[in-house]
Write a structure and sequence with these properties.
Elements: H1 3-12, H2 20-40, E1 41-46, E2 49-54, H3 55-58, H4 66-69, H5 72-92, H6 97-109, H7 112-128, H8 133-144, H9 148-158, H10 160-170, H11 173-190, H12 203-219, H13 229-245, H14 268-282, H15 285-292, H16 295-305, H17 308-328, H18 341-365, H19 382-402, H20 414-426
Antiparallel strand pairs: 1-2
Helix pairs in contact: 1-16, 2-5, 2-16, 2-17, 5-12, 5-14, 6-9, 6-19, 7-8, 7-20, 8-17, 8-19, 9-12, 9-19, 11-12, 12-14, 13-14, 17-18, 19-20
């Protein structure tokens, strides 16, 4: 049975009560992230050496494009909606926190393990072949860039019992408290001569938790249609005023060489952008849900969501492999100066190359996203799940920032790889066999 036929079969089984717009936004947001990464990456050959440049730094006008391609607020909004539905259902069934959180972790980490192991093998083999450490490390950092999201999202998911309870008791107050904290952190980060730059890292969980709370508002039916209009207006106005009068750059992702980033760590510019995106996109929920009721349209969404994490995790590996192959052939396609007219025209065939390179990776590793659930769900205790989550988050953050290659030994940072594997064992990720079958996804 073809992938389309499988997706169509699952699409026809979708309950009428399901909000298909949630799945659509998840698929679209990941698609924009992938396309954005593929466009701003500017590899080139100069004087016989490979340079991995960034279009946002080369041509500042491209920083305005990040208003379109920075869609992580939408992903956290969708996460809030989905986590609310999942946690509430889990409570009704009497499941423990350990069981629920282990299930969420398995869905996130299952597809990640093959990526880390493959790049660990690349690093070890590359060292034995005499490939320079810098090249291996830069390649692994490029490929593992997408994993930062998983570390943050795991933390946000782990706090769902607290954030959901806060929502049920305080409603929008639980959102505005987080916004106030984010504003206060930014004031201390940027305000006056005695500013305190490092305090900005507090906003990493705060900003994303705030956006996640809006997912609860949406789940409660209070953030759609005309109700979303004020959010869109307030978000656009807030972003404009902050960009005009605040210390914030235009780019909504980090720019190499820039002292201030709106994402590393997150700041209130992301909250403003998130509010604008929420307002604009949820105004369209009604007509979009009617469109998604069409079988072929919904089948497309089901098909993409069935491999969404694999697409997200492996799309940068596709770039790395394409660059590596180009280097083997005298840097073919890498000699145009980034930002030139010829370079922009070359984006079209390069995007096709990235897609072609991604397809076999999805066919080979996509099965790990469709792990069959255990026959009997293990009742994992909190004392086991929480340390596992901590190990996973620390390992992911470490390899995202520092790569997986090591300038010594056999060339692999075994400490971080080991921490990730142990963390996965603690939350029960290897408790299923990826070759045993596929679980229905919708």
């Amino acid at each position: 049975m073809s992938l389309w036929s499988q997706a169509r079969k699952l699409a026809l089984q979708t309950p009428e009560a399901r909000n298909r717009y949630v799945d659509f936004l998840r698929a679209v947001s990941i698609g924009f992230v992938v396309l954005g990464h593929w466009i701003i990456a500017a590899p080139s050959m100069k004087d016989g050496r490979l340079h991995l440049d960034h279009m946002l730094g080369i041509q500042p006008w491209t920083q305005w494009l990040t208003l379109l391609f920075q869609v992580m607020p939408i992903f956290f909004l969708v996460g809030g909606y989905s986590n609310a539905a999942s946690w509430d259902a889990s409570r009704r069934k009497g499941e423990s926190y350990g069981v629920w959180m282990a299930g969420r972790a398995r869905r996130l980490i299952g597809p990640l393990l093959p990526l880390v192991l493959v790049w660990g093998i690349f690093a070890a083999v590359g060292r034995q072949l005499g490939i320079p450490f810098e090249m291996l490390n830069e390649g692994s950092k490029l490929a593992l860039v997408p994993t930062w999201f998983l570390a943050v999202y795991m933390v946000v998911c782990s706090l769902v019992p607290l954030t959901r309870a806060a929502w049920q008791r305080f409603g929008m107050g639980s959102y505005w408290v987080l916004v106030a904290i984010a504003v206060g952190v930014d004031f201390l980060r940027f305000g006056g001569e005695g500013h305190w730059p490092t305090i900005g890292w507090i906003n990493y969980p705060v900003v994303w938790l705030a956006v996640h709370q809006l997912g609860y508002l949406w789940r409660d039916g209070r953030l759609a249609g005309w109700r979303a209009v004020p959010w869109g207006i307030a978000g656009v106005l807030s972003w404009t005023l902050l960009a005009r009068f605040g210390p914030y750059p235009i780019s909504m992702v980090g720019v190499p060489g820039e002292e201030v980033s709106n994402t590393l760590p997150p700041d209130i510019m992301l909250l403003a952008l998130g509010a604008a995106q929420v307002g604009i996109l949820l105004m369209l929920e009604g007509p979009m849900r009617r469109l998604l009721a069409k079988v072929n349209v919904w089948t497309s969404v089901v098909l993409i969501n069935g491999m969404i994490m694999s697409i997200y995790l492996w799309h940068m590996t596709s770039i790395a492999l394409a660059i590596g192959v180009a280097r083997l052939f005298d840097g073919i396609g890498l000699h145009e100066p980034p930002g030139s007219g010829d370079w922009w025209l070359a984006r079209i065939p390069w995007l096709a190359v990235y897609v072609i390179g991604l397809i076999p990776l999805l066919l080979l590793f996509g099965r790990f996203e469709r792990l069959r659930a255990p026959e009997v769900t293990p009742r994992l205790p909190v004392w086991r799940v929480v340390p596992g989550l901590v190990l996973i988050a620390v390992a992911i953050a470490s390899v995202t920032l520092g790569g997986i290659a090591h300038d010594g030994g056999i060339g692999v940072r075994f400490g971080m790889v080991g921490a990730l594997i142990v963390g996965a064992l603690l939350v029960g990720v290897p408790g299923t066999n990826p070759f045993r079958g596929r679980a229905p996804q919708s």
